[in-house]
Queue: 2 jobs
Job 1
Amino acid sequence: MGTSVVTSIHAAQDQPAVQLVDLTKSYGDYTAVHQLNLNIHRGEIFGLLGPNGAGKTTTILMMLGLTEPSSGQARICGFDPARNALKVKRRVGYLPDDIGFYEDRTALDNLIYTARLNGISIDEAKSRAEILLEKTGIVEHMHKKVGAFSRGMRQRLGLADVLIKNPEVIILDEPTLGIDPEGVRELLQLISSLSRDQGLTVLLSSHHLHQVQQICDRVGLFVQGKLIACGDIQSLSNQLNDEGSINIEVGTAVWTEALQASIAQIEGVLDIYRNPDDKGNEEYDLATIVCDRDLTSQIAETIIRSHANLVYLRRKDYGLDDIYHRYFERKGAR
Ligand SMILES: Nc1ncnc2c1ncn2[C@@H]1O[C@H](COP(=O)(O)OP(=O)(O)OP(=O)(O)O)[C@@H](O)[C@H]1O
């Protein structure tokens, strides 16, 4: 093997698995994805997060060569999907949010079918299918017809289906949709361990920040076709802290609109929101007040004056709820 070949193979290994440069997609006057720049490194688990209609699926379709960018470029495993869709397809496994299987055929048959479509010999297909059914935890159901599978089992089978061609990158569109909390936890753990064991690059699209952050190395926050922030949870939190605002969390026996309005009138209060993932605390209601300075005593006074029964008050660092709220609902609305 000549030096130049060796160099170029090493260069390819060093290249990010996914490179998006000024990637843009317009439908008529509407821009669904606007000049997206993003690198995803090999072996990384990346979460593409955003509310409905943010442009996540459109981005994925451009990455797969299933829709053409209006401008800009994507390179997936070194290939441009707009020109080399087949080469990209060979290296990338895609699990859409509504994967179709042959419902009247067994899980094993479905996997063997996919493997055969990808040019894998029948013996190899069988052995890979059995290994993957084992890994995804549904081996005992391999002879069951897929039509009888639960949503969680289908998603596990979907993972096995994308993995059967030994992809370098897997793209999972809302993989946890419609699965119960325990099933979500198990599925995410499975994705995480598959990625770690095999050095797989994973792109996961979701609108559940809480779920995704459990396994993602980095997340990108996508709003109205634009990537408004990108990084690990800690650095996103630090960016918000650097903006100089202070978060005060309060717990009250009752939270009323009148109380919220009184707090909003305090000079220096920037934003107030109820904690979105307050897990049904029955003792008190939790809210976060974003201020441009430390307004702890003014807030306490206002709550006490309104007889709302202040149960607790503390200054807090930015957590996931705050990141979600500040980036998606405040910045996204600008
Ligand atoms: N073929 C199309 N023609 C016109 N507009 C489209 C088309 N496909 C998508 N859009 C629009 O582009 C925007 C982004 O859609 P996309 O499906 O990429 O969002 P998403 O982030 O995946 O949302 P969701 O979480 O709801 O799946 C939406 O406003 C959608 O209506």
Job 2
Amino acid sequence: MTSADLTKFRRDLHRIPEPGFQEFKTQQYLLDVIRALPQEHLSYKTWETGILVRIEGSAPEKTVGYRTDMDGLPVPEQSGLEFPSEHEGMMHACGHDMHMSIALGILQNLADNRPVQNVVMLFQPAEEGPGGAEPMLRSEEFKTWKPDEIYALHIAPEHPVGTIATKPGVLFANTSELFINLRGKGGHAARPHQTEDMVVAASHFVTQLQSIVARNIDPLDSAVVTIGTIEAGTKQNIIAESARVEGTIRTFSMDNMKLIKERITGMLKGVEASFHCETDVDWGANYCQVYNDETKTAELASAAESHGQVDFVESREAMTGEDFGYFLRDIPGTMVWLGVDTPYGLHDNRISPSEKAMDTAVEFFTDFLHSR
Ligand SMILES: CC(=O)N[C@@H](CCC[C@H](N)C(=O)O)C(=O)O
């Protein structure tokens, strides 16, 4: 697999970002590449908009898994790249175009040069939401090819190209989405006393939310409550009768997740009483933490440290979420960060990861999967 091939995959995929479980063009593109590979030891099947590919090892004693995510984000691209998204309002702003291209590169290498162990490559939809890992794990397609160990990577804007970073134990947080509706009585902007203004109610609620992390979480622990969107109203001189607040919760412990949800439920009761309105809350998709197996992580770290192309770094845990956590809850393995050296963070509309990082990842993971 050449750098030029990887770059072509990445740019083609970058142009067609699609929402979770709607990765139709992405799936077709990947299938076209997979069908063009040497087929001798290869079999594949689809699941929803995902794909599972199995390479029959030469003397297998186990099956090793490698997973990539596939979906894009509702981010209007501002990267200035020469190959921007062709899907208005959507962007691969979390590197899944790179992740998929790397997986294709590894697959091509393994199809050309058969590994000893069986390898299953998983192209998993809907990582950003509503979560493809958990239903994929439950699928018959997965169960019949279930690996004995499993690996994945995620691009890391802050690390230089060549870096692979990870740690044993908790790498990413538990997550829960948060969707709240507030309903009251709207009316004329000049007659506020006859209304129950949901812009004011939602604003108080969002401000109150900030006290949860500040005043309910042990300062030696960590949690995040982020509101990403607020929608309310139809016109500047009409008092809004409804508002919708959407966000996400991140914790390292399930006790804190429970505590935060209880506090939010309590606060909403207060908002209802204070602003004479009705509210409802939906916790959306919940991901379990990414917990790296101690032994597999040590083995991967040692392979990275002795690999000529890689600079291995012990990383800290992060409040990011990843539904790869569900695979790791069931199957020992590890997730790593891959340095891509861009000043813009994940989910930023300007993110522009260095494509050179794909060479490092493909070389390292091809060697690593051969060595299992
Ligand atoms: C790597 C990454 O950025 N993952 C997402 C996962 C989102 C889970 C869910 N939709 C949520 O918002 O809680 C992240 O935002 O960390």
